[in-house]
Amino acid sequence: MKRKIEIVINGGGVKMLRKLFPVFVCGLVLVVAPYYGFSEETSKEDSSAQSATTKADTAAREWVMGIVKSVNLGDGTIDISYYDFENDEDKVITISTSDKTEYIGMKLKEINPGDDIEVSYTYSNDGTPIAEAVITAKLQSQKEEETAGSEAEK
How far is the C-alpha of 92 from the C-alpha of 67, rounded, in Å? Predict the structure, then answer.
């Protein structure tokens, strides 16, 4: 016996497709929209705001870590030898100090060539680096000596 299989598209199937079509379109829009116009405008605005903030912070303050090459007490400058990773070379920067410079570890007159140093600085209007904070390694070595001295006394 052979059976006949008939496919009949009745009104119910078409009605179901008509109801599901708007849901399908909305789902497709929700999935595809983030890759187009909406997110691009927002991300461009966010990234430009972030880069402007980063540029302002970078322009306002810079840091250098290195070894003191020389100290000029007369004009209040420190020459610091440091390694520039971006250009893969050793460099020397001359940083001026002011009455607003904060010293952590040693005062300017106590700093000697060969000392490890870290300086936070900004640029003056004429492009001269001006130190905001000077941190020397003596602070760390003083703490180590105090700790070693207190352990030796015990």
Answer: 9
Q: What H or E segment, with its residue span, contains residue 68?
A: strand 62-72
Distance in angstroms (rounded) separating the CA atoms of residues 47 and 138 = 41
User: What confidence tier does 56 reach under pLDDT thresholds 50, 70, 90?
Assistant: very low
Mean pLDDT over each residue of the chain, to the nearest integer: 74
Structural fold of domain 61-143:
OB fold (Dihydrolipoamide Acetyltransferase, E2P) (2.40.50)
Handedness of CA 73, 122, 94, 135 (dihedral sign): positive
Domain ranges for the chain: 11-57, 61-143
- Amino acid letter, 93: I
Q: With H, G, I as helix, E, B as strand and everything else as coil, classify residue 67.
A: strand
Instruction: Identify the CA nearest to 96 among candidates 132, 62, 129, 135.
Output: 129
| Alpha-helical segments (H) within 35-128 | 37-60
User: pTM for the complete prediction?
Assistant: 0.53
